[in-house]
Specification:
Blueprint lengths: L1 H4 L1 H5 L8 H5 L4 H10 L2 E4 L7 E4 L2 H8 L5 E2 L29 H9 L5 H20 L7 E2 H18 L7 H10 L8 H25 L8 H6 L2 H4 L3 H32 L1 H9 L4 H12 L4 E6 L3 E3 L2 E3 L4 E5 H4 L35 H17 L2 E5 L4 E2 L8 E3 L1 E6 L1
Parallel strand pairs: 2-8
Antiparallel strand pairs: 1-2, 3-5, 4-12, 5-8, 6-7, 9-12, 10-11
Bound molecules: protoporphyrin IX containing FE.
The site of protoporphyrin IX containing FE has 27 residues, from helix 13 and helix 17.
Length: about 400
């Protein structure tokens, strides 16, 4: 009878790394280590997301992302769950889930918001807001780093990028959390609830959009999209899809890296001591923290034709999951890969931003925000002490934290 009640658990493939509990309990390291050593291109026949190929090593991920015509982002979307980009009742196309040539035009629309000169323009503002948030923290008293720092900083940044009403900015966090939760695929009523919030988000942005149509251009993403050629060809749902992409892309990822940096520096005190003694290591530390955290555990591709990867026969239509989380712990590329080394010589080679034509368009902005946070902490000689284990996000796409109790001390 017990097995009847738990059919999925009883069948569970120990190498099915899509299981939410691996991430909730932070026990994904061993199964990925086994996969990399024994089956870097591995077929899982039966998971709660259906059959998939698990690509867990660095080299085959680069190989697959270098062939976007064969391994499509559009054919099945970008996560292991089929519903995130398309639902039975509504399609919200996003350029992260498009192939060439459409992808090229739409990416070009938002890329100017992330050029080096835009980063210079935004940097003073990012520094001021980061300083203000750090100066508002209580010393010698426990608080949640996720809520007080990571969410606040990333949400403020997005509000500025979109010229979004300041007092409503936490809505961005709320919508982003719902949009990025792939576990919802398994619950019909939650799916419907999620869709409701996506419509609410769409209606809110439509209002902002209407206020800017026919107005002179302003340096925010909505205005940039309105005034671009590619945008003129986008319909309403495409516009909404791309906004949600930017909200989710810029939100959970940077937020979880900002929490990961506190957690990792506390866990690896030798690295922390080196960084505290030498702030010139901050640039490399940013790369190393993004590698170590890997805030998006995977992206997905779908084969458009039969192909061989890592000696395995992939058939047209099959789903391939590219585990960046595992590639970034690949010992053949990163020595002592599970350890955070602030002076790691090749930290920059990480795959957390992906590779190829879809490589993260917001990478520079994420790096700037994280570097600024580390610099402002260093200026204040602020050490963040982790009081207990964090509460983690229980799913295999967004790799992050719900809360992290900390206290502050000086070094
Ligand atoms: C694409 C990771 C920050 C916007 C991606 C991809 C990854 C990623 C893995 C997909 C690559 C692929 O499919 O090959 C991250 C990480 C971040 C971060 C780890 C922070 C540490 C941001 C920020 C923004 C952003 C701050 C914008 C505000 C996007 C967009 C795409 C994307 C629009 C789609 C690019 C395309 O399809 O051409 N990101 N991201 N991301 N990201 Fe990020």
């Amino acid at each position: 009878m017990a097995t009847m009640l738990h059919p999925v658990e009883s069948r569970a493939d120990p190498l099915d790394v899509s299981r939410a509990e691996l991430y909730r309990d932070d026990i994904w390291h061993d199964p990925f280590r086994t996969l990399r050593a024994t089956a870097p291109v591995h077929r899982v026949e039966d998971s709660s997301y259906g059959a998939y190929w698990s690509i867990s090593a660095y080299k085959p991920i680069i190989e697959i992302e270098s062939l976007p015509e064969i391994f499509s982002s559009e054919a099945g979307g970008i996560t292991i769950a089929d519903f995130i980009e398309s639902d039975d009742t509504v399609k919200m196309p996003m350029f992260i889930a498009m192939d060439r040539p459409k992808h090229t035009g739409q990416r070009r629309t938002v890329a100017p918001a992330f050029t080096p000169s835009e980063m210079v323009r935004m940097s003073d503002d990012i520094r001021r807001r980061t300083g203000e948030i750090l100066d508002g923290l209580p010393w010698g008293e426990e608080f949640d780093w996720v809520d007080r720092v990571s969410i606040e900083l990333t949400t403020q940044m997005l509000a500025i990028l979109f010229d979004f009403p300041w007092e409503d900015r936490r809505k961005l966090t709320f919508w982003s959390d719902w949009a990025g939760d792939i576990e919802l695929v398994k619950d019909e009523s939650k799916r419907a609830e999620r869709l409701g919030y996506m419509y609410e988000c769409g209606a809110y942005f439509k209002k902002l959009w209407d206020q800017k149509v026919g107005q002179p251009p302003t340096p925010d993403l909505i205005s940039m999209m309105i005034h671009s050629d590619a945008m003129r060809e986008m319909d309403h749902l495409e516009f909404l899809g791309n906004l949600i992409l930017l909200i989710v892309g810029g939100n959970d990822t940077t937020r979880n890296t900002m929490t990961g940096l506190v957690y990792a520096l506390d866990k690896f005190p030798d690295s922390r001591a080196k960084l505290e003694a030498d702030p010139s290591l901050i640039g490399n530390t940013v790369q190393e923290i993004i590698r170590w955290q890997t805030p998006l555990a995977h992206m997905r591709r779908t084969a458009t034709q039969d192909a061989i990867v890592g000696g395995q026969q992939i058939r047209a239509g099959e789903k391939l999951i590219l585990w960046y989380l595992s590639a970034n712990r690949d010992e053949s590329v990163f020595e002592d890969a599970d350890t955070l080394l602030v002076d790691r010589p090749n930290a920059r080679r990480h795959l957390a931003f992906g590779h190829g034509i879809h490589r993260c368009v917001g990478a520079r902005l994420a790096e700037l925000q994280i570097a600024t946070l580390l610099e402002e902490m260093a200026k204040r000689r602020m050490r963040v002490n982790v009081m207990r284990e964090p509460q983690r996000v229980a799913q295999c796409f967004v790799h992050g934290y719900k809360s992290l109790p900390v206290t502050l001390s000086k070094y």
